[in-house]
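2024-03-11 09:14:02 DEBUG pipeline.ingest accepted 1 chain
2024-03-11 09:14:02 DEBUG pipeline.ingest length=461
2024-03-11 09:14:03 DEBUG pipeline.predict start
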Amino acid sequence: MTSREATQHKLASRTPATRLVRTLAVAISIGCVAAACSGDPVPADSEAATAEASSDPAPNESSNSVDSDADSQVDSDGVETSDTNFNPMGAVEAASIIPASASASQVELMTPGDGREPVTFRLDAPNAGVVQLEMTANYWNAFPDSTLELIRVDDEISSHALTLYLGPEQWLYRFRVDGTWVADPANPARVGAEMEEGNSVMLVGEALPLATPQFGAPQGVVETLTIESDILGRTIPAVLYLPPGTSADDSSDELPLLVLLHGFGQPATDWVEAASIATMMDNLIADGSIEPFAIVMPSAEMSNYLGNRARHIVDEVIPAVAERHPIRGASGSGDAPAMAIGGFSMGGNGAVRLAYDRPDLFGLSMPISMAGPCGTLCPDEYDSSYPDGFEAEFAMWAGVDDELRLDENHDAFADYLTDRGIDFTDTRIDQPGHRLSGHSIRFVRTIAGDVLIRADEFFTR
């Protein structure tokens, strides 16, 4: 069956039971150096942890500034949770002047909008010349007209500040000080990022229900495998999720396996830390939406899953998982391929390539906002790259606002599959929320539950 559709996506609406929260006061939107900030977390119910926000915030104009007062709960797998307000040092106005030369994207982020909260970013770097904010809201300053610079304020809190208006859910961000990457030193909530660096994490409003741990729900096991790779000649990590009720040493019934591939330069931990995939699995299993299966998330750095890196996944990562727990179809010797593979961006390209190279292993491929065969935007290369077609079936997702235009790869590959009569479902996502349909983990979080459910449908046929 071939299915192509453009979907206005509704976020997961499962309402969790009483929320399990480990209280850790986090200075979410106020960056500062050690000399300006205490290392001790501010208690969530303390006077210092409450910011007094205007009930009718004004736009960022030369005569106006705003306070930051959105509740924060960092809730990602392996990341501490907090119930601290964005401005734990008290109500402080931060000047945020919209430059006359501001682009439309800059003006949008610096102007109030429906469903968005004022969030003030601060960094105390008095000797810095230029302090920029890089985040999922402006695709990490990848384009000149989306670059955001903090304004010199030199107030009692910090040397630089900027107020943006952001919609709900998780945002990743970092500062760039005179060209050097700096995670927010006042925010201990971080996830791994490219080049072994880290991005700071903040939550505006509530997390997606599916990404929120359900109180009392059994939790799966997440561990990092250390693989001595003969193929690559060095030690490589891979992250393994085993569902509740199993363990690494359990030799009971075989589990189905989903291989999830990360994007360009991201760490193996990306799906767990930034996308909250383990929490989503726990919740979907707990409410009976899916049957248990295992997930392995290999490390591929910036390899585009080519050559030896693809061999490493098939010949070393999957056997390493099978040593931990029996995996259905790990040898590829069954009557039909039993494993599924998916990935985001570069990982989407990897999911296509590995399904082509190893049809004996992978019966379902799920590319998300996929890079092309060249590793980036190249929608004309599918016929030459995959001349023999595919035996696997496909489920595909892409956001309509992809900043890298990789949705063009998505459309071209859908045409390729249609022309060859290959089964696939094609979902183009137009999210109603603030910047939820772009090329980011923020988008991936909103459709990750659908990816897991689609994998379960394949496993349970």
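2024-03-11 09:14:41 DEBUG pipeline.report The chain is about 20% helix and 25% strand.
2024-03-11 09:14:41 DEBUG pipeline.predict end
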